[in-house]
Amino acid sequence: MPQINLNVQGMTCGSCVKHVTKALESLNGVESVQVDLQSGRVQVSRASNQTDDLIHALDEEGYPSSLDLDEQSTAPAKKKGGCGSGCGCG
Q1: Given this model, what pLDDT does residue 72 score?
Q2: How far is it between the farthest Cα atoms of the chain?
Q3: Domains along the chain?
Q4: CB count, 10 Å around CB of 49?
């Protein structure tokens, strides 16, 4: 099963993690979602390598994202303040 790695901006708390996870798990073919809040990275296991719907779903929730083409990097992703989904932590 393909693993897709994303850099996601705007995640600042556990509620953000829940919003991101729920948005991605609702998409066709997504088997699992693992979110690393500290690094701003999300790993998605799905039946295909399709990524445009993942990025679109996160953008719709207020979390700008991009493909992480350098999945070996350990540098944390830059975060922008506040949640994308209005959980009140920002």
Answers
A1: 45
A2: 36
A3: 3-67 (3.30.70.100)
A4: 8
CA distance 65 to 10: 9
pLDDT in tens, 1-47: 889 999 999 999 999 999 999 999 999 999 999 999 999 999 999 99
Strand order in the sheet with 30-36: 30-36, 41-46, 3-8, 65-67
Angle between helices 52-60 and 14-25 (to 10 degrees): 140
Residue 67's beta-bridge partner residues?
A: 6
pTM (2 d.p.): 0.79
The pLDDT, as a whole number, for residue 76 is 44
Q: Which two tokens stand for residue 68?
A: 């992480």
- For 46, counting Cβ atoms within 10 Å of its Cβ (0-12 exposed, 13-18 middle, 19+ buried), the class is buried
